[in-house]
């Protein structure tokens, strides 16, 4: 597989969470793309628009019928005519409530289902791991929560109300035109001003603040997360006051932008109220003149004025949503910034990876080449290595040599741009990542320990594991004695990020979790990176002892304990410079011997 076909090397089509996004789609307005997410439920939204039009139309008709009934009652009509008007008023009152409820039910149901699908797409994309290196954690949380939820805001407030206004407003204008043409034309002008000109002005005024609001919200979230996660170090170095000042500054900026947004909404509401008042007064003035010259009767005048007043309910929601379009568009850009990130792992060609327990699990890496983008230097450039079944092989080298990139390829977190990675003769890139990870498991450089019990942290690897299986994994990782000494044993709470455990215990817990998963190949990525020198040798010895029987790859820049491995590969600048046993490399001139002698 090469860089031009795996989504990372310039292909105009990228696979994102199982969805293909071409370059033309990426260039579309984020608002249109967000609305496009609701396409599978277009029928439901159309039904919601019809129900919304029925609800709004019932409200306008209710006031018009009430005006007709009151004006007609002065002429002492027949009881039958009044009864019809009373029944119509009650029916419209009931239908307004019922259709409004159904409209909210249908529209919100469709919007929440769409939001659920968007969240799944975001989660699937994040499962590719690549965005974690591109966004800061607080900003990523803001994109995942706030920016994703703006899809709901757009679909509920920005999609249905404008369509409802067009349908109901057009019907109302046609009705009043049939009653009195100048009155209908005046209402059309008023509705165009309140429902089009004011929202356009609000949208223009809200574009800048809306974009700044999305950025300010992301900045506040990032600063808060950094403050909470780094609190111990900030206190230790006396930097907490300065960090809190940054949080206050971010909060002040968000408050200022929100106040500007509120001012825009206030101006829009005031402009709408002014246009409504002027239109109603204009309708009253024209109606009085028409009654004076006999063009219409007093009853028609009442219907004209009160229907004009009620008609502005149709366009009342539009300025508010228009003022939010800037923020929604900015949130959409941030949302699609995650969804459009090229996938690090391509869609598999097939599924059903199964390796027989008795089968050969030799790992062969042939001419492996990986880079992180077009034109960037090769992180791995023609790497060849082999891990015989049941053997332990170490890959050593300085930081930035490409060692962790090798681990990412083996664990299917990244596709190679060239070459092959085989397990027992099977190319791992042909199969889904989850299937490969059932065969290849590992202990990352900084294993995550969840704020739960030891039992639940272990069961991540195998949810149905019994206690005796958990203890067996702990014994293999040489952690059983420490856990037995704890008052609550497996039910011991480990604290946030495993702070209740030492660094060595966290590594052993991660190894026990990996062993419990029952893989055939183990990848240990920098297992002693955060340990003090006195602890490293013991942890390496325990890890290698626990890994006995697996095909094991130990990735490290520390040469501690490498006399226990079967073969060592020295990698530098993405290439294998030396390989051999510990004894061979200590006698051979090169990087390994020079570092060993320090």
Ranges with pLDDT <50 over ≥5 residues? 1-20
The tally of domains stands at 2
Sum up the overall morphology in one term: elongated
- Average predicted local confidence, pLDDT: 81
| Content of β-strand | 5-15%
Q: Count the helices. How many?
A: 19
What's the CATH first level of the largest domain? Mainly Alpha
Largest sheet entry: 6 strands, mixed
Using DSSP, what is the number of strands?
Answer: 12
Category by helix and strand content: alpha/beta
CATH architecture descriptor of the largest domain? Up-down Bundle
The CATH homologous superfamily of the largest domain is termed: ABC transporter type 1, transmembrane domain
Q: In order across it, which strands form the biggest sheet? A: 8-9-10-5-11-12
Share of residues in helices: 55-70%
**CATH T-level topology of the largest domain:** ABC transporter transmembrane region fold
- Rg for CA atoms: 34 Å
Q: End-to-end span in angstroms? A: 41 Å
GO molecular function, one term: ATP binding
Pfam families: ABC_membrane, ABC_tran
Main location: membrane
Domain ABC transporter: 363-598
Topology:
Elements: E1 13-16, E2 19-22, H1 23-26, H2 30-36, H3 42-73, H4 79-126, H5 137-179, H6 181-229, H7 231-236, H8 240-292, H9 298-311, H10 318-339, E3 363-370, E4 380-387, E5 392-396, H11 403-410, E6 418-423, E7 426-427, H12 433-439, E8 440-443, H13 454-458, H14 467-476, H15 480-485, H16 503-516, E9 521-525, H17 533-546, E10 551-556, E11 567-572, E12 575-580, H18 582-587, H19 591-596
Parallel strand pairs: 5-10, 5-11, 8-9, 9-10
Antiparallel strand pairs: 1-2, 3-4, 3-6, 6-7, 11-12
Helix pairs in contact: 2-10, 3-4, 3-5, 3-9, 4-5, 5-6, 5-9, 5-10, 6-8, 6-10, 8-9, 8-10, 14-16, 16-17
